[in-house]
Automatic annotation (TrEMBL):
Compartments where found: Membrane
Protein name listed in UniProt: Bax inhibitor-1/YccA family protein
Keyword Mitochondrion (UniProt): no
Superkingdom field: Bacteria
Pfam families, per database record: Bax1-I
Length: 214
């Protein structure tokens, strides 16, 4: 058991992981641009399909070929469902602000991931807190639909979201660095990292949007 643990923790095919993530981001970008041709009525069903696909990937993660196929399909559909949000922020704040938010996201995500990998500090203990916080974010978002909040409350909500997904980046890369991972795990890991990036990006956009409104 000890030898297996040592082998598992030392196996970290990061080049394959980042190559798969890069390709996945390209597929998601293609989906984003394709989203402009999707009828508005289809976005909700596509979002439901996106959620279902995450659970399907969890069960299919040990089947390497199916895992990659589902990963790229998920990325494309996720790109489609991102279009309404990105389109709104482009029209409300301008493409230059959205690109600036994307650059901030890249720096924040890259710096956090690099710190977790290089420092090898154990951030796995924050997993429970992050899970509960995401549930809280979800219900707070639902409440905001029915009960409008002040700009200050919206700013705090957005900052909390940024904090949580920075935390998830630390958590995910800490797990990868300390536990190790195999080639078969890569599709599910890519999806997890992608969701960290996308949610961080959306909360940064939301934060900037609130600041601009003020």
């Amino acid at each position: 058991m000890m030898n297996q643990s040592v082998v598992g923790s030392s196996h970290k095919p990061y080049p394959k992981l980042f190559a798969a993530l890069f390709l996945g981001l390209i597929v998601a970008t293609v989906g984003l641009f394709t989203g402009q041709y999707v009828p508005p009525a289809l976005f909700l069903p596509l979002a439901i399909v996106e959620i279902v696909m995450i659970f399907m990937m969890i069960f299919a993660r040990k089947r390497k070929s199916m895992g990659y196929m589902m990963m790229f399909a998920f990325m494309f559909i996720s790109g489609l469902t991102l279009y309404p949000a990105i389109s709104y922020y482009v029209s409300a704040m301008g493409a230059d602000v959205v690109l600036r938010a994307a650059a901030i996201t890249a720096v924040a995500f890259g710096g956090t991931a690099l710190y977790a990998v290089i420092s090898k500090r154990d951030f796995r203990f924050i997993g429970g807190f992050l899970f509960i916080s995401v549930i809280a974010l979800f219900f707070m978002g639902i409440l905001q639909i029915f009960f409008p909040v002040s700009g200050t409350a919206e700013l705090i909500y957005s900052a909390f979201g940024i904090f949580i997904f920075i935390g998830y980046t630390l958590y995910d890369f800490s797990r990868l660095t300390l536990n190790g991972f195999t080639d078969r795990d890569i599709p599910m890991i890519v999806v997890s990292i992608y969701l960290d990036i996308v949610n961080l990006f959306l909360f940064i956009l939301r934060f900037i949007g609130v600041l601009n409104d003020d």
